[in-house]
Each structure stands twice: as structure tokens, then as C-alpha cells.
Amino acid sequence: MAMQETTPEQLVEYCRVIVIIPAYNEERFIGSVVLKARQHADTVIVVDDGSSDDTAAVAEAAGAVVVRHEENRGKGAALNTAFREARAMGAGVVVTVDGDGQHRCDEIGTLVEPILSGAADMAVGSRFLEVKSDIPAWRIFGQHSLTLATNLGSGFSLTDSQSGFRAFSPRAVRTLAFNSAGFSVESEMQFLAREHGLRVVEVPITCSYDDPPKRNPVAHGLQVLNGMMRLVGQHRPLLFFGVPGLASLLFGLLWGLLVVDIYSRIHVLAFGYALIAVLFTLAGALTLLTGIILHSIRGLLVELKESLER
Description:
alpha/beta; Spore Coat Polysaccharide Biosynthesis Protein SpsA, Chain A; 7-stranded mixed beta sheet
């Protein structure tokens, strides 16, 4: 008799699934999100990140394990806290869900399938692999812009870099630790995945945008871009310093050729032009050298950290 194919829902039954929800002032939605998540998980952990409303009380009443931050420390810190709790509980797979109700918890089974089958260390729910959601046009433009910037900065490509609906293997949960305080933590995951060689796949998901955003979308996007620039500087210093340094150096050298051409034709040194050429050449050389030095130092630190962890 042929063996029946194992469904995502059956795979979930074989493993301890823990859903974690970072929440800040989400009392309106958190109760329903917890109740829906509990139908597809063994445990739901809500990290109340310094909320001023009843987020913690509502989540607890809905059956979540609630961990409180006394003050708002940002999504990255909330995820670090939740990952520690999940590790202590012996999670077989960890799923992150946003607390505003935009994600469909009945898709958890499909999202965790690549983790449970051993195909990936991180599964990212993508809103753009298959267009199933009614996403406002301004959101699509903003998300694609942030995704393009994150892909270029991290050197690791996804179709939806800002998705908060993700699943993680035990290896990923042990490996990942976030330094981003704000909403650039999803971008940081791409940098860390590339750095630690984590296997990443994307899974189509559906999102609901029935309510207007709580945060100003322009301010939110700028916050993510600011955080991403810091990530590029920290994780890829050669790219961060090398590209502008090389551009400045080439511009200075080309401008210097113009100075030489002027002198060869009229035998007069264009002092102003020459000064510009020298400034751009020196600035470019120093910036490029800085990138090379920092890249080498970072490589040594990564090797030292890996040797200490063995």
C-alpha cells in the first residue's frame, strides 16, 4: 500500500510548536490573535514590550504565557526575550506572528512545513510570492522599496524582507540574537542568515489590512532604512565604506586628468580644479582603506567568536 503524504497539520502534531508574539499596545487585537494561534501551537508566548494599555492582561486571559518588559525596548529586544523563553521550553519550531491581527494563524502549518521537513532553518511568509492579499498600493511600493534596499545591503535576496510572519528551526533560534531596537529587525535577520549560513525559504501567505496603520508609514520606513544603514556598516563595512570610497577616488583621479589636460593645452595650473582632485582622491583613498581595515577586523572577530563557540 502506498504511503499517504504527510500534511502540514500532521507535521505540526509531531513537534513542539511555540508561537511568539511581540506586542506593544495591542489590547484591541491580541486576545483574538492568541486564541487563533493556540489552535495551531503547543504554547503561545506574548512579550508585552512596555505597553500602557491592557495588552498583557488580555493576552494572559486568552491563554498566552506573558513576559513583560517594564519599558518599551523595541521589537528586537522583545524577540530576544521570546527566543530565550522558547529555548527554555524546548521548542521544536518557533513561529513569530504580529500582534495586530494581520496574519492568518491557520497558515502556521504551511509556514512550518519547510522547518519540520528539514528543508530550511528559517521560513519567511511572503505577501508577494503569490498575490492573494488585497494590499494597498502605497504599502506595496513601500515594502518593495525596503526589500530592494535590504537585499542590496545584505547580499541575501527575498521577495518580502519586512514580513513578521516567520518560522525558525532550533538551530536558528540558538543562533539568532538581534541588536536592532526598532522595526529593522526583519532586515537584520537577512544579514544574520547570510552571516551564519542559515537556509532560508519563502512561503506564500495572506495578510489582512482592514484597519489603518498605527504608525506613520513614512516615519516607519525611514526608521527601517536608518536601521538598515547601521546594519550595512556593522555587517558589511567593505560595502558601506568601499563603494563611496572607490567612487570618490575614481572621481578625483578623473578630475585630475582634467587638470593635466588643461595644463598641457595652456600651460597654466588650474589650482581650484587641482585642489578638488586632491581632496576627492585623498578622501576616497582613506574611506576605501577604512573599509578594507574594518572588513579584515570583522573577519578576525567572526573567526574568534566561532572558535570560542566550538
